[in-house]
Amino acid sequence: MLFRASALCMALISLPLAAALPTTTTDHSRMSLSSRDDTQCEAGKAFYVCNLNNFRGCCSVDPCALQDGCPDKPDNDDGDTKPTPGSCPKKGEKTRLFQPQMQTLILPDTDKPIPAQNFDLIKSNTTERQQIASWALPAEAKDCSVGWSIPEKRNFSAGHTARVSVHDNDDNERLGGADFSFWPETPGPRSNLVAAVDCKESVSLRLAMELNDQVFLEQNEETGWWVEYSC
């Protein structure tokens, strides 16, 4: 009798705890999420990927059953979505500007870019996720080029055919390509030049997988895509 009472108490105690745990069950309105996506959200919000409205991002409520996606107002409610302008380095020196403004495009709907922070592409037979990376440069910028870098410690994953095409987002001209295959397994830091680009106050690239594969790189002040220039 004592054993049955103890078991009943344990079941009652564990019930609310189990109800509060997140689920990874896939249904028709959402996909399972990785823990790295959830860490990108501020307190009071969770990360969602929805099929109904193509929403992907942080939200204070479950947006997957809402036709228009997340009802939350963007953090920059003034409508200014331009990246923070870079400054000129000292004469004769170059500078690298990391942490571009990232936007995710879930094809075929390219009219609703979703704000992002990290480099995160995927292409398969059923879905494709591209991104736009943008920087604001000083008017005096010259000798401009773009590339990507990784330090010794990084959050980085890629398939073995993770080749990315790089296009100018304004005129769709192909600027070059970047191959991320096998680099997550290669120890040590690395810096890769991708292409020289025209120097202008707004540099915007469209990044897309060339083959069915995926790549993820957590970006910060020394990791990810950069633009290099002098003045």
TrEMBL record:
<keyword id="KW-0732">Signal</keyword>
<feature type="signal peptide">
    <location>
        <begin position="1"/>
        <end position="20"/>
    </location>
</feature>
<feature type="region of interest" description="Disordered">
    <location>
        <begin position="74"/>
        <end position="94"/>
    </location>
</feature>
<protein>
    <recommendedName>
        <fullName>Secreted protein</fullName>
    </recommendedName>
</protein>
